Request: fold
Amino acid sequence: MKKVHKSGFVNIIGHPNVGKSTLINAIIGERLNIITHKAQTTRHRIFGILNGKNKEFEYQVVFSDTPGVLEPAYALQESMMSSVKSALEDADVFLYVVELGEGPLKNESILESLKKSDKPLLLLLNKVDLHDQGKLEKEATLWSDRMPNAEVIPISALTKFNLDYLLKRILELIPDSPPYFGKEQLTDRSERFVTSEIIREQILIYYNKEIPYSVEVEIDSFKETDDLIKIRALLFVARESQKGIIIGHKGAALKRVGVGARKKMQNFFKKHVHLELFVKVQADWRNNRDKLKKFGYE
Ligand SMILES: Nc1nc2c(ncn2[C@@H]2O[C@H](COP(=O)(O)OP(=O)(O)OP(=O)(O)O)[C@@H](O)[C@H]2O)c(=O)[nH]1
Ligand SMILES: [Mg+2]
Reply:
């Protein structure tokens, strides 16, 4: 008898900061997608691929991480929302992640499309580790009423609570299909992309207000040998005044970014990393469609 293989696209959607990227990393067991306590950490649709097998079949689940849903205020955010919309179109299973106690969605049309979709929808009540049973039950009822087509599952992406059950349900719901990607592949993104995201994560951690949202990272060169990766990265800011803030007094602020990023890169690539950072001004790049395209946005 021919062995069955199951594969499917599982697309994750939700507000900013609800834990979408944390969930993907927890399921695939790698620190692939960047996570911070700030909203709008993720700017692209990124595949995280889980390959595995159980007693009955082999599987490949292609998770899509997406930016948090918001009402766009500039061209970069419009591109972020178009990547969310693309994730509405090709899913085998939807995961809609909510945080207990979150406010109304800024873009109700996305919730409406999920309601009307004929694909299975799992509504994940995340961060249950922060709340008591009473609150959880109340919110579960509220969401069941609001999204009658959804199966409500409480989870904690951080403590991995109920993720085994979630994966079991996903494997039941994805179709029989050959794999879409190589069985060794972890993501559709390049090593350069992962590298630029690691730097952006440090920027979100270390700078406040508009600064992290005004920075784009480009990998100028990425040279790998047997025991070393040499990386040169350009940090683009939107205004001259932001350059000094990024660099800091005697370069101290930028140095912190470099130290933190290098450590994460060495963990991810399991190799020594030599990292150089340069700051450049690319005036108002967030509203410039040509520049956005050059930076890899749709
Ligand atoms: N306590 C708790 N915190 C969590 C949980 N899941 C995620 N977080 C935290 O929530 C914050 C946001 O997590 P992310 O994974 O970056 O959220 P996101 O939905 O990908 O955010 P965007 O990319 O901005 O849309 C981080 O500080 C996480 O550590 C959880 O189950 N419990
Ligand atoms: Mg994210």
About this structure: The chain has two domains: 5-173, 191-294. Residues 14, 16-22, 35-37, 39-42, 67-68, 126-127, 129-130, 156-158 surround guanosine-5'-triphosphate (ligand 1) (CB under 6 Å). The radius of gyration is 20 Å.
